[in-house]
Write a structure and sequence with these properties.
It contains eleven helices and no strands. The protein is an all-alpha fold. The protein has one domain.
Length: 233
């Protein structure tokens, strides 16, 4: 077995663990996409291209939270500002409701950065709830891209985008500290499994793809409505 084959084998095994949720905590899941990305990149060139081009606000969000908890307000504010810039750039490449959601999150992150600088943010939950709304905007963004790739018959790329949808949804639930019911967990697991199958080049019945994606879209909408009501201090 050559090195590339070995990498693909290990990556596929790791991806399977991530998909079915055997063991990782919610916190682990928030950081699981780098593993999923590596697995997809090793197994499918087209999906790998999507993953390798992926850019995340997560590094800024994590840095901002860590700095805020450590009472390093200047560093926290800068990280939140950087997250806002990143999110606004994504809104520039989106359209319709997705564009509005991303732009709204960028505004919220920028406002939060200003408040952190002034010292008026009293609870880390203010950050977490804003991050949850950003993650849901990201989920909508990747959902729209997944649909576009699917309709263009770029199945592997669609699969990569679908995996990202599941990633962001789970992060949002974790940031919002909202429980996930068994039915919602099934929708997420089905979405992640669908994404993996598509990145691996599986031939699927269109109705199956559209049903799974439709179920995930519904859950994104429900969680978005709940997250919109969350207020920090």
């Amino acid at each position: 077995m050559n090195t590339a084959s070995a990498i693909r084998g290990v990556a596929a095994a790791v991806l399977a663990i991530v998909i079915v949720g055997c063991g990782p905590s919610m916190e682990d899941r928030r950081r699981a996409d780098s593993v999923a990305a590596a697995a997809a990149q090793a197994s499918t060139t087209q999906a790998g291209e999507v993953f390798s081009a992926r850019r995340e606000a997560q590094m800024y969000l994590d840095s901002g939270r860590t700095s805020f908890v450590g009472r390093r307000n200047a560093a926290a504010s800068k990280a939140l500002h950087d997250a806002a810039i990143f999110t606004r750039r994504q809104s520039d490449s989106a359209s319709g409701e997705v564009k509005k959601a991303l732009a709204s999150s960028a505004d919220e992150l920028e406002h939060l950065a200003t408040r952190v600088t002034k010292g008026t943010v009293k609870s880390v939950k203010s950050l977490d709830y804003a991050f949850a709304r950003t993650q849901l905007a990201e989920a909508q963004y990747h959902y729209a891209r997944a649909v576009a790739e699917w309709h263009a018959t770029n199945t592997a790329a669609a699969g990569a985008e679908i995996v990202m949808v599941a990633d962001h949804f789970e992060r949002a639930a974790a940031d919002a500290s909202l429980p996930i019911s068994d039915s919602v967990r099934n929708a997420v697991n089905n979405t992640r499994a669908l994404g993996a199958r598509l990145t691996q080049g599986a031939s699927l019945v269109p109705a199956e793809v559209e049903w799974t994606m439709g179920a995930m879209k519904k859950e994104i909408g429900i969680l978005t409505a709940k997250a919109a009501k969350l207020k920090g201090q």
